[in-house]
Amino acid sequence: QVQLVESGGGLVQTGGSLKLSCAASGSTFSMYVMGWFRQAPGKEREFVASISRSGSSTYYADSVKGRFTISRDTAKNTVYLQMNSLKPEDTAGYFCAADRWATTQSLAIKDTYDGWGQGTQVTVSS
């Protein structure tokens, strides 16, 4: 089972940027589809972005397309989420997720993923 640890969250002003990191251990990183989800208070956990095992394909929620970029570094067993042009509605806990069997049809569904990090808080002030 893969273990995931997120970092990089914080407080930023509207229009600012943050880069989240998720370090994976305990299993072969390249075997996993990786995803980022977020959850605001009182709301469901929602898909943000995902990246294929090779890193050649990326997928984004419409709400973050053009502003966020997901990437992965196999040598460092780490997946990143670069967040630019942040808005107050981006405020949430951000969670890294991993799954060996996710497909393009399932990667945006949180129940697809069986490995989760503890989350890192992102707060965007207006």
Structural description of this entry:
By secondary structure, the chain is mainly β. 0% of the residues lie in helices and 48% in strands. It is built from no helices and eleven strands. It has strands at 3-7, 10-13, 18-25, 33-39, 46-51, 58-60, 68-73, 78-83, 92-99, 115-116, 120-125. Strands 2, 4, 5, 6, 9, 10 and 11 form a seven-stranded mixed β-sheet that branches. Strand 7 (68-73) and strand 8 form a beta hairpin. It is globular. The relative contact order is 0.31.
Brief write-up:
The protein has strands at residues 3-7, 10-13, 18-25, 33-39, 46-51, 58-60, 68-73, 78-83, 92-99, 115-116, 120-125.
The overall pLDDT average reads 96
The tally of strands reads 11
Overall form: globular
Q: What proportion of the residues is helical, as a percent range?
A: under 10%
Structural class: mainly beta
Radius of gyration: 13 Å
Ends distance: 39 Å
Low-confidence stretches: none
Helical stretch count? 0
Percent strand: over 45%
Order of secondary-structure elements: EEEEEEEEEEE
Biggest beta sheet attributes = 7 strands, mixed
Structural features:
126 residues; mainly beta; 7-stranded mixed sheet; 4-stranded antiparallel sheet; 0% helix
Secondary structure topology:
Layout: E1 3-7, E2 10-13, E3 18-25, E4 33-39, E5 46-51, E6 58-60, E7 68-73, E8 78-83, E9 92-99, E10 115-116, E11 120-125
Parallel strand pairs: 2-11
Antiparallel strand pairs: 1-3, 3-8, 4-5, 4-9, 5-6, 7-8, 9-10, 9-11
